[in-house]
Amino acid sequence: MPDPLSGRERQIVTLAAKGMASKDIAARLFLSVRTVSNHLQHAYIKLGVSSRAGLAQALGSSPRTLGQNILA
Hints:
Elements: H1 7-17, H2 22-29, H3 33-47, H4 52-58, H5 66-71
């Protein structure tokens, strides 16, 4: 099954699922907070979730191991 998330969405989802705030994600990735929010909304729709905790669950990982699984 192909990955429904773009590369940038996957980066943002990984950081959000780890508990990082949108403004911190934006600063780390050199994006605006609005861009981060838009990517998160698209990811929520694609994955059928409505929260950051749901992101980790939808990707089959706990928030602590999420980045290791996705970005390895």
